[in-house]
Amino acid sequence: MLLIQHIFLTTAIFAFMEAWAWFSHKYLLHGPLWFIHRSHHRQRKSWFEWNDSVSLLYAALAGFLIFKGAPTGSWHLDAGLGIALYGVFYFLFHDIIIHQRVRYKHPFKNAYVRRLIRAHKQHHRHGEKNPGEAYGFLFAHKKYSVK
């Protein structure tokens, strides 16, 4: 496969992961898997919450695909890299910037980052399974823009 094809497929999988994150968050995590995701909508008592097991599942899938595809450079490698890259962004934006699971003092002035933070806070406004909104991760509707 040509390098451009690898880059395209990795990028496409990364983009697909945003759509999958929205769908799985709304219909699975706030549905039949609420018993796992509920920990994310409660006051955290330790650094680990049951919801983190979902991220570990995706990390294992990404690792498996990378391991399978690396020797031959097959599409498995690109899929694994796309999922892993999405996981890195998830950790940086969601766990560090939004929930500050790693403490820092940095007021964000960037409009995009502030919109993500507002959308996520709106999502967490309700601690229950439903009602909810803003199920996405890297895309936050402009209605969450800071005026």
General description of the model:
It is built from 5 helices and no strands. The chain has 147 residues and is mainly α. It starts with a helix and ends in a 23-residue tail after the last helix. The model has no long low-confidence stretch (mean pLDDT 88).
Q: Helix/strand/pairing class, anyone?
A: mainly alpha
Q: What integer is the average pLDDT? A: 88
Rg over alpha carbons: 17 Å
The count of helical stretches stands at 5
The proportion of residues forming helix, as a percent range, comes to: 55-70%
Strand content: under 5%
Please outline the major beta sheet: none
**What pattern of helices and strands is seen along the backbone?**
HHHHH
Q: What is the subunit arrangement here?
A: single chain
What is the molecular shape? globular
Low-confidence stretches: none
The N- and C-terminal alpha carbons lie at a distance of: 47 Å
Let me know the number of strands: 0
